Amino acid sequence: MTEVADTSTDESKAPDDPNTWVTDGPPCERRDPGPGRRASNDVALGGLLKVRPEDFLVDELPSYDPVGEGEHLYLGVQKRDMPHGEMIAVIARLFNIDESAIGFAGMKDRVAITRQAVSVHLPGFKGDPPPLDHARMQVLWAKRHVNKLRRGHLKGNRFSIRVRDVDPLSVRHVYKRMQAMEKTGVPAYFGDQRFGYRRNNQVCGLAILASQPQVLLDEMLGSRGAPFPARQLPFRRLYEEGKFAESLVGWGRNDRAEKIALQALSKGRDAHRAVRALPEYIKSFWISALQSAIFNANLDARVADGSYAQMIDGDIMFKHDSGACFRASDASADEIAARLISAEISPTGPLHGIGMLQPTGRALDIETLALTTVGTTHEAFLAKCPIEFSGARRPLRVFFANWEVEGGVDEHGAFIRCAFDLPKGAFATVLMRELLGATVPSINGQHADTESA
Predict the structure, then answer these.
(1) What is the pLDDT of residues 394-417, one digit of tens each?
(2) Which entry of 55, 81, 109, 449 is annotated as an active-site residue?
(3) What is the CATH number of domain 288-398?
(4) I want to staple 426 with a disulfide (CB 3.0 to 4.6 A). Which of 18, 258, 318, 422 is the partner?
């Protein structure tokens, strides 16, 4: 058994320290899928994010308002310190419906207080929703609409973040840095929360893409592969012994995918049917994590050579006002340079799948290398897959708006508060890391605010 910490342990039992992360297999040599290099040359001031849920506030900015009639009931939901999957499960139980009837525009942070809309397909339901009595979740409003709320049906999110363990007198430096970043943008990495508390959501995505259900189950439930908290070792080994019902008892309320798969296995279903039992949004999220890991590897290479905000040979450019893409070769170099400086356009990176525009030249070379480092190919995304998804281009930088910065002290200590709006798909934790070098607290190198789908 391999530990993440530098201590040895008897292989017959879990380490005494419950915070130790272990694996029965060899040390994992996978590339870290999270954000790569910072573009800023400023000395990182540091600081901690999400010390308390109240330090990280998120308000969804909707694309449209419900019209007041239709088969879908939209709910304004506030949750505190709650994973997305648990929120979906609570709503499903409230209305006694399948989770597939619930729609959402985006998945919000766990260690936070977040407000967002969700939709519930209730064609025969009349009147007000049943009362929700939950300590960490409230329904703020309800209104009818004609269609299901789907991924991407939002303008963005408004954040208000208090950074702890930082000198509040540094606020002047932070203010100046925000002024500069407002003009140049920041690298549009996918945040750590995309990749799960074991940093292996992209590995699950690889297994789905390759139609390898047994590989997926072993990664999720077994004692090899990505490290996991030592307390999970006994019931991971029970899974490997084929004692699925006994293994099921050990998993917690937030281990939804693991519990669903084990329930199917304990009923005698094979690996294919156990994976088929998993909610579609979980499997789609794993595929998205794989796309995100490849994008991050590509962006890291562009930050390293300074080209994430510049045009290189073969680039495909993104128009920030419309979301449209075009080949850089269709415009003059001088025109491209001027539009890059004015923040009208940005170079793009890949979200591999059917329908994605392929670059050429040097841009294609960098993207091909990113695929190799993650362990797949572009062609794999074009083959038949049990999950429907499409490809796209994503800008390599993102811009924020309506920002504020202040320093202060409250009953929990000193802080610097930053507030800003980000477009959909952008991560506030990435912006704060670029701005301050601030990070989310971790346990033995594992990010505390990440979760499986």
Answers:
(1) 999 999 999 999 999 999 999 999
(2) 109
(3) 3.30.2340.10
(4) 422
